[in-house]
Amino acid sequence: MIVRCASPKTLQLAWDMARAQELPVCIHSTGRDWRGRSLKDNSVVLDLSAMNAIKIDVDALEVSIEGGVTTSQLNNFLRDYDLVTVIGNEGSVGMAGFLMGGGYGPLMMRYGLGCDNLIAADILLPNGEKVFCDDNHEPQLFWAIRGGGGNFGVLVSARLRLYAPPALYSGSVVFPWKDAAAALECYEQAMHCASEALFGSVAMVVGPAGKPILVVSLIWTAGLEQGIRAFEDLAAVGDPINAKAGLINPTDVLALTDGKLPAGRGYEVGTGWFDRLSTSTISTLIAAFDARSSDLSSIIIHHCHGVATAVAPNATAFGMRKPHFTALIYGSWLPDSGDGKVHSAWVNTLNAALSTTALPGGYANLLPDGAEEQIAHAYGENGIQLAQLKRRFDPSGVLAAIPLPK
Predict the structure, then answer these.
(1) What is the C-alpha to C-alpha distance for residues 216 and 89, in angstroms, rounded to an integer?
(2) What is the DSSP string of 246-263?
(3) CA 377 to CA 364: how far, in whole Å?
(4) Rounded to whole angstroms, how far apart are CA atoms 37 and 348?
(5) Alpha-carbon distance 358 to 303, whole Å?
(6) H or E element, residue 383
């Protein structure tokens, strides 16, 4: 049974009905969970996608959103006000899962992770009680939902910080595959000495000509001259196919990657954290992409530093607060190309190969339930407290979101 919840009131009614009849429940916000945890057989599915109201307080630089709002909906809404908040890299991702999972995004180096910009939230607990939480009200719950995922309750609404940044300087350099190693080395060096004004990411993809390419994208939020110099240094590597940079509106920057992971495909995802992109790691990545099982697959790398890593590891449930690279391995295929086993095997083989140089753990929002070794380290020392809070707020295990340590 699917119940389309158009408001917090209908969500409450549907939840109470399902729990009164002791029916299993799962929460479907935008359906972007690649493991399908938002849809389960023989369950009451509470669909929050129609709960997409947004209200802004320009004077306070705050915005309130309901639990079904997507990143693109919020970004498009804020465009009219020339304001931004920290959102993710794909427009169809739900803000609820993004915020509660931690929240990497292009502005994190300047303003912190998504969860760091959560001011307050209304949460529907598994027992049916709706509670307000912030630093002073239900502080343990507020701590847990900032990085521990939707394991403790349903995000009914949230209040977020807003910012009025200047126009950004953004650029990308497209490299032929022969220059991939040199470009990755240049990127790695740039990220290790980067200020909080610089965000950089890498994409290994198959280009329009059907050949693999490497794209390095950089965003500067301050210091135009510094940004131009860094871009010129990058563009001087090898023989770029294309290099383009310029001033851009912040909301346009946040929309650049919309649609890169379209619905309707099969997906397998792997992820890992790295202190450095060593020569060995770079070689492993390049060799693996050469051996990809699908031309729709990709490998994305970004670096987390600046304000996002200036927060104490125990300040929120998201415990990875030292500068690090995150590698995201997306195995992707069309539904009519088989059952996906060969593509899943490609992702899992690469993930295993990278584990020899990776840091313990990984971005929990993208870890599968069976990755017990990574899950055990994904939250650092916060894992013990998260397990305790799970038993307190959801003793019957009604909600199953991103994996928690056992």
Answers:
(1) 15
(2) EEE-HHHHHTTTTTSS-T
(3) 9
(4) 19
(5) 14
(6) helix 382-393
Q: Which amino acid is residue 251, in one-letter code?
A: T
> Which two tokens mark 325?
């690279």
Q: Read off the tokens for 269.
A: 């995802």
Q: Which H or E element spans position 298? A: strand 298-304
Pairing relation of β-strands 168-176 and 212-220? antiparallel
CA dist., res. 122 & res. 6, Å (int) = 16
Q: By the 8 A CB rule, do 40 and 26 touch?
A: yes
Let me know how long the chain is.
406
In order of their start, the domains of the chain are 2-164 (3.30.465.10), 168-365 (3.40.462.20)
Per-residue model confidence as pLDDT tens for the chain (406 residues): 899 999 999 999 999 999 888 888 989 887 667 676 777 778 899 999 999 999 999 999 999 999 999 999 999 999 999 999 999 888 888 999 999 999 999 999 999 999 999 999 999 999 999 999 999 999 999 999 999 999 999 999 999 999 998 778 999 999 999 999 999 999 999 998 888 999 999 999 999 999 999 999 999 988 678 788 889 999 999 999 999 999 888 888 777 777 677 878 899 999 999 999 999 999 999 999 999 999 999 999 999 999 999 999 999 999 999 999 999 999 999 988 777 899 999 999 999 999 999 999 999 988 887 888 899 899 999 999 999 999 999 999 999 888 898 7
Segment (H or E) for 229: helix 224-235
Distance CA 176, CA 187 (A): 15
93 closest CA partner among 163, 5, 10, 34? 34
Q: Within 10 A of 286 (CB to CB), how many other CB atoms are there?
A: 18
Residue given tokens 């009680």 in the structure block: 129
93 DSSP 8-state letter: S
* Residue 16, both tokens: 């109470």
Q: Provide DSSP, 111-166.
A: H--TGGGEEEEEEE-TTS-EEEESSSSSHHHHHHHTTS-TTS-EEEEEEEE-B---
Burial of 22 (0-12, 13-18, 19+ CB in 10 A): exposed
